Amino acid sequence: MPKFSTDRPGGVPPGSPPTSPESLSRSATVWLAQHLLDREEGGVHRAAPSVGGPPITGRKHLSDQSAAVLALADNAPQELPVALRGLYALLDRDGLPGFSELADRSWRAQPTGRPRTLRHQFHAAAALLVGSLHTADQVARVRALDLLNRCLSTCVNGVFPSRVSQEWRQTVDGTPSPLTTASALRALAIADALGEPDVDTEQLPQMVVFLNRHVRERPSPGGDPRIALAMAHAARLLDSAEHIDAAHRVLDMTVRHFSRRHDTGGISAIDTAYLLLAGSVLRSRGHDDRGATAVSRAAIGRLVDHRHGGFHTVLAPTGVTPTVKYAQAQSALAGALCATSALPISRQGWPADDHDE
What we know:
Blueprint: H1 21-35, E1 47-49, E2 60-61, H2 62-75, H3 80-89, E3 102-103, E4 116-117, H4 118-135, H5 138-152, E5 163-164, E6 171-173, H6 178-193, H7 204-217, H8 225-238, H9 241-260, H10 269-284, H11 292-303, E7 324-326, H12 327-341
Antiparallel strand pairs: 1-7, 2-3, 4-5, 5-6
Helix pairs in contact: 1-2, 1-12, 2-3, 2-4, 2-12, 3-4, 4-5, 4-6, 6-7, 6-8, 7-8, 8-9, 8-10, 9-10, 10-11, 10-12
């Protein structure tokens, strides 16, 4: 069981307002640790009943393991070893670069999980790099950097394929993937934040050109929070007025879209986390967040489960209680809320008005 205090409902730490970023982050972390960590086999289960209880066991996904490592590293490092067991278990057992992406509960890799989906590999490389820092594991650091640079080597003129073969010799799906580019920018931002010098950033400007072109030519309805976060990371890494303006354009479009949705009903927990992080990245450099914090906060207030702790994945219709909570939703919001709590006061949300409800 978690070693941190869970005496108050939902895992709210004593002395913290129940709507503060710290309290909400702790609520998600406690729920993740209590109900989704697999203390027998390591890693995290995909989901559990929304009221708590035995997890929904079955296949384990790389994306869940990566998200849990990134969330627990800062929020509950004492629980990190359990999460890292799952990430390590998916490292290719034949010595090939990267991770298997799907396994059963006992970590037997499934055939459908053997091709490398680059956005999942980027996410896992970043998680492994963060984990290696917390455990002082130089072997894991070297593997993380090798995988990160290998993924980056598939980029041509800022464009990544979607999937490559397990041996990294063939392209399985060559469709240009904006979400892969977004994942690459997030991984580069994490490596930069860790002060990691051994990462190839040569294609970074071209990646931003590709995302800008994608947003102009084939915008998703109202914008995509994952793209908004990637552009915010690019603005921080490249630190130019041009890239800050580009990040603001994408964020403006995304915030307007979710602001128009009735009671922010169209935004999921994971989208909320990405939008909150996008605003936080810009705020960390002294730039306007374009209302991202306020819109995210409105969604979080409706997604949080004050009775049982944690967050619902999506808003259910009035009178309907969601029956399942997912690991990725808890991990994503725990990490985003932790990042927000470390920032200076915002004019458009936390922490300036934590006591106004």
